[in-house]
Amino acid sequence: MATQHTPLHRAAAEVVAAYAGISAGDLKVEPPPRPELGDLAVGCFAIAKTRQQNPAEVARAIAAAFTPTPFLVRATAQGPFINFHADRDATYRWLIDGALQGRLVPRDLGAGQTICIDYGSPNISKHLAYHHIRGTTIGHALAQTFRALGYRVVGINFLGDWGTTHGMVLAAWARWGPSEGTNEPLDVTHLHALYQKFRAAAKDDPALEQEGRTWFKRLEDGDPEARALWQRFRDVSWAEFQSVYEILGIEYDEVRGEAAYEPDMPRIFETLAAKGLSTMSEGALVVELPDEKTPILLRTRDGTTLYATRDVAAAEYRWDHYQFARSLYVVDRGQALHFRQLFKLLDKMGHAWAARCEHVPYGLVRIDNKKAASRLGKVVLMREVFTIAEEMIRERTAATNPDLPAAIVDDVARQVGIGAIVFANLAPQRDKDIDFDLDNAVSIEGDSGPYLQYSHARCAAIGRKAGETVTSLDGVDVSRLSNDFEWAVARRLLEFPGAVVRAAEAGEPHVICHYLLQLAADFSHWYTAGGKDAENRVLTDDAPTRRARLALVAAVQATLRDGLAMLGIAAPDQM
Predict the structure, then answer these.
(1) N or C: which end of the chain has fewer CB within 10 A?
(2) What is the pTM of this model?
């Protein structure tokens, strides 16, 4: 339950723990529901139950016994909660210094631990369509977040490069592919068209399905022609995928397709047989699993392997090579049964680390309220969406900032256009389906990526207008920060470490999205308050106060930048 990721949270927990004689790590510290109640609160329910006392009495006793700490000046009881009031000067110093030095989040939380994250993982011979973006961006955001917390992260692209569908592409090529010596290009568009043509033809000629299975059997048996063609298709596909990943700033630590585990199949079948786990069912090899109505299928009746078997080999490989603390599979929720069965199979095989494997499911991306599926032939390509978004941002930026050099406009268009699409896929809760709406995604108003990027750019613009950007506490008198708008920003900054940790633990990037929107709103309220009351202006004529406020602006800017980076989104200084 540890929620003590700042010295203030730890101090509050320690005060209560010392009184109750329990571990501070067992206490939940959170903001009270209203700022006038205090800055941090700890519930006394569990303590009261252990002591057989009324929770409100316990809270009053702790408040009465409280003595100030370097970060906490006062404690008050409110029903069953004890509320702590922060020493504002000490808090401002810690927050601003931590933000400017990149130390607000606990950067050593994951020291010595490895997280494997399997995400993206498209099928070769198909385009990266827009519906692929959800898993790709969620996985990348989790990778960046865990890295920010000090974990060693292994980002894995588990290419779908093996299976019957690839036999279909080979069969289609044999029937309709270009002849040797022609100039027809070999690219993903051509390969995908062949696959679709094969699927359509198979509806009228069921024998084609068997033709595809036969080609896959040739591939598994090591047929030189099948292997050579398959390798060409894989290389062409990966080159296309990589060009899109570069747009998103994604670099995988490991790219290993299903084919890499084909040599492990005999060993896995032997292991299952030796342990008495596998049985034959209607000619297919299966394993019965506890509390599952259907067994997990590992080999078809015609002798070809299935991705479940290759997933077993991949899981063993990852454990052997990385000794992971957690192994995450960022795959849509439609695969929930597969992963539940996979993890049960790994456990049944005697792998104690199976409990460290987790499916991170996500909802679907819909276009016109219909599931976007490449097999339907209604594909919106990921790179095309980026191009359209960039152009929309470019037109708006050039119109609102006519004096910006063209090179800067292009940079803004690229960063904000891509950031808009990424944020639109991360902001909803992971398990929610989302409807593709490009206009809302690129809007600078509302809960959007461009709004956050604009907030960051606004902070940078304030520094430029002031003629300085504060980079340290040197020469900053934090006691000049005294109004409620400033303190609301500080209270929100205090929540950043906890938000990042929660996002990582739950595999929920939307937690960071929601937090950054709140921070941007609090900053906006503070900054715009200066337009109504000169006393609240950031760029006040009083030099010490202006510098203190500029330091707080710099802390907000740094936090927005770091939070956006965890989401895989750029933070431009101009918009």
Answers:
(1) N
(2) 0.93
Q: What is the pLDDT of residue 373?
A: 42
Q: Determine how many CB atoms are found less than 10 A away from the CB of residue 472.
A: 12
Contacts of 574 (CB under 8 A, 6+ apart): 401, 404, 408, 412, 457, 460, 461
* SS3 state of residue 537: coil
Give phi and psi for 69, each to the nearest 5: -120, 175
Phi-psi region of 21 (alpha: psi -120 to 50; beta: other; left: phi over 0): left
Spatial distance between the Cα atoms of 128 and 121, rounded to a whole number of angstroms: 10
Are 279 and 286 within 8 A, CB to CB? yes
SS3 of 197-261: the string is: HHHHHHHHCCHHHHHHHHHHHHHHCCCHHHHHHHHHHHHHHHHHHHHHHHHHCCCCCEECCHHHH
Least Cα distance to 491 among 526, 459, 461 occurs for: 526
296-299 vs 357-360, strand pairing mode: unpaired
pLDDT band at 21 (very low <50, low <70, confident <90, very high): confident
- The amino acid present at 312, given as its one-letter code, is V
Q: Say whether 404 sits in a helix, a strand or coil.
A: coil
Instruction: Please list, in sequence order, all residues whose beta carbon lies within 8 angstroms of the beta carbon of residue 97, skipping any fewer than 6 positions away.
Output: 103, 472, 473
Question: pLDDT for 297-330, tens place per residue?
Answer: 999 888 888 889 999 999 999 999 999 999 999 9
- Which token pair is 422? 């990424």
Domains of the chain: 7-86 (3.30.1360.70), 382-567 (1.10.730.10)
SS3 (DSSP) at 463: helix
The DSSP annotation for 290-353 comes to TT-SSPEEEE-TTS-B-HHHHHHHHHHHHHHHH--SEEEEE--GGGHHHHHHHHHHHHHTT-GG
Q: What is the pLDDT of residues 463-476, one digit of tens each?
A: 999 998 899 999 99
**How sure is the predictor about 531, in pLDDT bands with cuts at 50, 70 and 90?**
confident
